[in-house]
Amino acid sequence: SSDLKSAEEDQKEDIGGDIDRLAAGGGANPASGGPDVNDVLDAADELIETIRTLVSSLPKNEGPTASAELGHVFQGIQRAVLPMVLHLLHAANPIYIALTNPNTTDNGEGTSSSFLDALLGLVTLLIEQSNLVVPEMWEVFSGLQGLVIHGSVADYFGSIIAPMDNAITVDVEGFLSHSGRSWKEVNTATIASGQVTSLAALPQVPLAQLLADMCDKVLLERNDMRLSEMAAAPRIIECVLLRIAIPPAGVSVPDSLRAAAVRTLTPSVVRCAMGNPNLSLTFTYLLAMAVFDSFLVHTPTALAVLSECGLPSGQFVAHIVRLTSDFASEALSEADGSGPQILQMRQLHIIASVYAHLTSEMASPTSTNNSFSAEQYHQLVSEIIGLLQPVIPAIMEIAALQTNNMISYAQDSLAKAKSGKGRGDKEDSEDEDEGDSGDGDEFADEDGDSDEDENRDGGEFADMDTNNVIQRLAKQAQALNADLDDDDEDEDFDAQADENQLEDFEASSVIDKVDVWQHLGPALAQAGAGADLLGKVSTLSAMFLQLGQLTEQVVQAAK
Questions:
Q1: What is the distance between the alpha carbons of residues 44 and 413, in angstroms, rounded to a whole number?
Q2: pTM of the full structure
């Protein structure tokens, strides 16, 4: 921790003069004798990269390497680094001002975005390696809220998913109980002029509200954004809600906090869906899945939010069931099940989970609220179950096809790793990387990025947990059954109707490792399902168990 702080201070001293001169108004360009904004951003980027290198050299504070001593070390590292991160995200800082200026680019390459990527990468790595969040860390998301609401980086919102999801995964109780300074009511011109010098006057709001404000900006105010960029908002809401719905072992989220999270986060996606009738079907479905997630967190509040937004729950669910049925029909249109796989495994898990959860709600409702009487609540839940029930068999059939494909890919990857023919072989990885990536590499970096970090530690799976591997396997399974075109970077905003907004999202989710089929069986039995359907759901549960075991073996073989 002391070495890290020393390295940080040395580099801060090197660029500190430039930052101070820029803050004093000296030289927006080199001709004036002061630093160029982009030069300062580049210097800050180098500092962040140095710190990332130091942090990544330490073992993760989890599993066999976890210890109280290592946890204490990481707490010290987070507290040593945070002042710099918060300084860079302070509205009085010239770098922050530069990030609110859409013209702050390097020959059109976007230096400001590059710097933000490095900063978010550092925060993500700190939390991932530490497996803890010091209370001061939550202040970072206040600065990010200001950038999204007032800056030129709302279309960069997807990059916030990783650090926020990591933080919530590690400390869901901290996220729900802490608050942060809100920039929502601050005038953008005030920030751009550098007049904000103190955070004390900014109101404190729950962290969930900071996130909701960012999502509102992305979903409701940024008409110039592509759907693929806007999709980050419902996806991060989904990450948060699923983590609350399925908290870590030993963690119990109070009912009041569950209800507050749903009431804060769900309206954004509902208003977006209602206010944009011409959205693509898959983007609408993505929004709907965030609402379904809220059913898993706190059903009474989710129903109340739909009602308060003017969208009857029955009408909403009926529309999503029709879309689900249409997508399922396409997927099962070929005798071998090779039709277009629009629905991804995560959506199948969510729908099955909601059906099972609501069925249990009918038996013993967790709570009601002032929006409905007990009788009204019972009727609404019963109606949704009845709407979902006819589509469950198709959901199971698609899940069986995709799970079988994932098992095949996992078996193939495991065989390659054990035989030394794949990238999972630690001894051969360096030799292979000197040439091309090798034939038969099922899990090569599809973005063409350097694999240096992956190969350094013994293969692409070496630094992955089973959730990440499951996501990669799911993506490969999709490719087997569908020939979906890659996004065209130059495609006009109005020509996105055919893009599947449900795919190409590799961030893992807690629900990916939940055997939802084990929970679905009793719900189907309670509904009077026949022996054939109950047998199929039992088979699905066994397949899911097999996939989990194979995934663990793939991770271990890669290491």
A1: 40
A2: 0.79
